[in-house]
Amino acid sequence: MFDFLKRSAPEAKASATGRVIAHASAGRVAWSPRDAASLTRTGFAGNPVGFRAVKLIAEAAATLPLGLQDRQTRYAEHPLIDLLARPNLGQGGEAFLEALYGQVLLTGNGYVEAVGEERPVELHVLRSDRMSLVPGADGWPVAYEYAVGGRKHRFDLNGGVSPICHIRSFHPQDDHYGLSPMQAAAQAIDVHNAASRWSKALLDNAARPSGAIVYRGIDGQGQLSADQFDRLQSEMESQHQGARNAGRPMLLEGGLDWKPMGFSPSDMEFQQAKEAAAREISVAFGVPPMLLGIPGDATYANYAEANRAFYRLTVLPFASRALSALGDWLSDFMGETLALAPDLDGVPALSVEREALWRRVGDADFLTEAEKRRLLGLPPKEMET
To answer: Domain range holding 299?
Structure first.
């Protein structure tokens, strides 16, 4: 699919002490890296809340029925409809859109490549973390570069229609790249992951708070020999740590005393902090916490109401914006002005709202038939095909 250049990219250098310097200052919070690849690992692949939020939005948006029309005609058959139904040999329409929406949610940017001489015969979603924009002297993009394994392929934007459709979310401080919900939820993701690691560490240590073994020698000495210290540490690790040793009584020899330290999980309220972080992640993505199974949230009266709000406030605006950009880009290839948008009448979650809208418009005797069709988003009746 790509005609990669054979010249290898220069090797990137990094200081061996960089990781140490990053955490050298005592008292500073160690946040995870904020680049796209790291956020995807920690917030999607390594966090169940972020994973489910992205999957919910991407899958729901990808299964929306599509409508294609221009100012006068609503199409039931069109080459663009056929192209989106089977964008390439390896993906169907829903899989293609899910991959595109997932890239935008994870990185704030989605890239689609058109393959074909005059009109696209295939569409491919490119990984956002491998794509970089090349700005010109005036700041506008002149090319895109796709890098894989030290090789780069350049998509020039100088001649004709751009071979790349760049869909990006709003970013107030960046002229070329979008801001992803994953970046906004990064701190909450770190807190949620840290709470999960804390719970796992407690289980590995028999779910008990940490403590100290104090040695008080009979002869007044307060220090163990090196051999005694190593033996005691080995016995603690083998006999009293881990889930299989939970509840095993500790047998201490003369001069040793156990002193509990720290707080219990209930005192530290780690579970509440974890649930609060999960709610912050769901808020950043626009998914009602009820749909993610997060307890303690009673914002919506029932699941159906939360599902309608999810579609109305999150899925439809997100999908409409992406499909509008995709439709405008493909219209340039087709040589005609086309509008690509979700077909609201085919969304089951909005069936009650759409039925009420159709009833209100149908009962409005003061409206003409053309006005009613315009309110419902339909083209004029005499021009419909």
So the answer is: 1-8+27-206+283-342
Tally of domains within the chain: 1
Among positive and negative, which fits the CA dihedral 271, 273, 276, 277? negative
Does the predicted TM-score (pTM) go above 0.90? no
Whether 361 maps to a domain, the answer reads no
Within 8 A by CB and 6+ apart from 40, the residues are 106, 107, 129, 182
What tokens appear for 204 in the block?
Answer: 């590995």
- CA of 137: how far to CAs of 65, 69, 131, 133, 356, in Å? 42, 38, 20, 13, 53
> Does a structural domain hold residue 254?
no
Instruction: Examine residue 272 and state whether it is found in any structural domain, yes or no.
Output: no
Residue range 185-232, pLDDT digits in tens: 999 999 889 888 877 777 676 555 556 666 666 565 566 667 776 777
Lowest mean pLDDT among 79-93, 101-115, 169-183, 293-307: 293-307
Task: Report the C-alpha gap between 385 and 379 in whole angstroms.
Answer: 10
